[in-house]
Amino acid sequence: MSDNKLTGDGPFSVCVYCGSRNGVRPGYRALALRLGTAIGQRGWQLVYGGGRAGLMGAVADATLAAGGTVVGVIPQSLMTLEVGHAGLTELHVVQTMHQRKQMMAERSHAFIAMPGGIGTFEELFEVWTWRHLNYHDRPLGLLDAEGYWAPMLQFLRHAAAEGFMGDDQMAMLHSDDQVDRLLDLLAAQAGDPGDDNFGKI
Ligand code: AMP
Questions:
Q1: Considering only CA atoms, which residue is closest to atom 12 of ligand 1?
Q2: Architecture (CATH level 2) of domain 13-185
Q3: pTM (2 decimals)?
C-alpha cells in the first residue's frame, strides 16, 4: 500500500481537474471561484495539479480564502517552469506525470472536471476509465458553465449509441451546473474508499 492512500481520517477531499487557462468567457472563472469557495466553506480539501495559472489557480485560491485546505501534486518538470502555486497547504513535487495522477487520485474521495483543455480531458478520461476497470469506486462529476460540456456529452451519447460505450459507463459521470448540488451528490455517493486497486495501475 502506498503512503498516499485515504485513511478515513482527515477532511473530505475533492480532486478537481480544470484548465490552466481561464477560457474566453468570464463564467468559467466565476465557476472556479464558486467551486473553490464551496469546498472551503464545507471545510473540505481540494486536491489538484498544483498550478497557479488559469482556473487551476482560481479554484485553489478560492478554497484557501474560504478556509479549506489545498493539496497540490506537480511534476518536477512543471515546477522547474515555475508554474507551481507557492501558497498551498501541501505541495508534492513528484518525478513523473503518472505518479502525479495516481497520487491525486489516491488522495481524493471524489473527482470533478471543470472546463479545461487537453490536460483536463486526459485526466477526466483516465480516472473514468480507472473507475470502469474497477481500480476505484469513487464518484465522478462534470461541472458545467456556459454549456461548455454539452458537445462532449453529445459525442459520448453518440459513442454509446454506436455501441462503443455502455449505459453503465455513461451513468458513472454526473453532470451539473450547480456547484452545491453536484458536491452534495458526490459526497452522498462517496463511500469509504477502503481498499482500492490503484497500486495495480
Ligand atoms: P489544460 O486543461 O490543458 O489546461 O490542462 C490542465 C490540467 O493539466 C490540469 O488539471 C493539470 O493537472 C495539468 N496542467 C496543465 N498545464 C499545467 C500547468 N501550467 N501547471 C500545472 N498543471 C498543469
A1: 49
A2: 3-Layer(aba) Sandwich (3.40)
A3: 0.94
